[in-house]
Design a protein that fits this description.
single chain; about 375 residues; alpha/beta; Leucine-rich repeat, LRR (right-handed beta-alpha superhelix); 2 domains; 9-stranded parallel sheet; about 30% helix; about 5% strand
Length: about 375
């Protein structure tokens, strides 16, 4: 990795002077580059150097102290640590120290401050992630394959073009606490975690602001996370084959959601806020314990597929279902209505002048083609 060395005629500020001047200007760059925004590792090392010079023991978590400019030798220590960081790289040929440049390391660091800050942060983030994953792997439970899962995560973080993490069938009971860390929040678009033993959603999942695809099918989930509504970019959510009992009202904040699969859970009802998912196209609710449906379900004007099969406690369809678009197919085989009632509902949806959705009682979803787009998505998950 090469560093650019400006002409020797330039009067160079020290690293600390540069950071302090940016901070004093209160501009965006200053807020980002000021020493108080450096990582704890950098602050820890500089504070440790100060204590060492003063022959005093280092304090625990000293890098978490954010107002350090008044600490004796803090400016000098920051420059010293910066110089050490620079010396860990491969300098360019014309950047080699000369016999007269006794402060080459510090001058070289001062010439490359933006690069230094970004590299130092990136190095610390990688070390921090590796440490978290190492601790997580060491807590592996029988049957889990955390080592391979950790390798997949490291591969994702190190590949600038990768946007997907797939941890399928690793028998995981938990995930590492990483999703509030860089680069996951801005880089992760697809997270596939099917066929594991997870009992809760990943911690800090609401921080994944660019996440579009989330598959947690065939796990042991019992509830939604409180921050589910923060996944503003989510378009695909597969939570089939879990143990969910309720759907929170915050689901209405997923305004871009197009595909929602809640098949084979323990749901007894849906919140009225479900009707606010204006872009929803596919809704799987088969094999639950639904006793009723909210009237607001009729507000899903873009819905083309609704499966209600094998909800034996569902004794009738709300009027809202009949307000769905004509392009929508509603599958009701196995709900708690008699064969004659189900047949009448199906036949009525084919009569002249009928403006509602197509009701399907005589056949099942498996008998027919999947909705447009669903086959493609499921192939991606296979």
């Amino acid at each position: 990795m090469s560093l650019r060395l400006p002409p020797n005629t330039l009067i160079r500020p020290t690293v600390h002077e540069y950071l302090y001047s940016l901070h004093a200007s209160r501009d965006q760059a200053g807020e980002q580059a000021h020493s108080n925004a450096l990582s704890e590792a950098f602050c820890d090392q500089t504070f440790h150097d100060i204590r060492k010079q003063e022959e005093r023991p280092a304090e625990a978590d000293c890098g978490k102290v954010y107002e350090l400019d008044s600490v004796p030798r803090w400016p000098e220590a920051i420059d010293e640590v910066a110089a050490n960081v620079v010396c860990s790289f491969n300098p360019v040929e014309n950047g080699q120290p000369s016999s007269t440049d006794v402060n080459w390391e510090k001058n070289h660091a001062a010439c490359n401050i933006p690069f230094l800050i970004e590299t130092e942060r990136g190095s610390w983030i990688k070390l921090q992630l590796e440490e978290i994953l190492k601790h997580w792997v060491n807590q592996e439970k029988p049957g889990e394959n955390r080592s391979e899962a950790a390798c997949c995560i490291i591969h994702f973080s190190g590949d600038p073009k990768k946007r997907t993490i797939t941890l399928d069938n690793f028998n995981l009971t938990s995930l590492p606490d990483i999703f509030d860390k860089r680069p996951f929040g801005w880089k992760l678009f697809s997270l596939f975690l099917p066929n594991n033993r997870l009992t809760s959603f990943p911690k800090h999942i609401g921080q994944l602001q660019r996440l579009m695809f989330l598959n947690l099918s065939n796990n042991h989930l019992k509830s939604f996370p409180e921050d589910i509504g923060q996944l503003k970019s989510l378009t695909f959510l597969d939570l089939s084959d879990n143990q969910l009992t309720t759907v929170p009202g915050e689901i209405d904040q997923l305004e871009h959601l197009k595909y929602l699969d809640l098949l084979n859970n323990h749901l007894t009802s849906l919140p009225e806020q479900i009707g606010k998912l204006k872009n929803l196209i596919t809704l799987h609710l088969s094999q639950n314990c639904l006793e009723s449906l909210p009237m607001e379900i009729g507000q899903l004007k873009k819905l083309t597929f609704l499966s209600l099969e094998d909800n034996f406690m569902l004794k009738s369809l709300p009027e809202g279902v009949h307000h769905l678009d004509q392009s929508c197919s509603v599958y009701i085989k196995g709900i708690g209505v008699s064969k004659s009632v189900g047949t009448n509902l199906e036949q009525s949806s084919h009569t002249a002048g009928y403006q509602g959705p197509k009701i399907v009682f005589s056949s099942t979803v498996e008998d027919l083609a999947l909705p447009t787009g669903e086959i493609t998505v499921r192939k991606r998950l296979a």
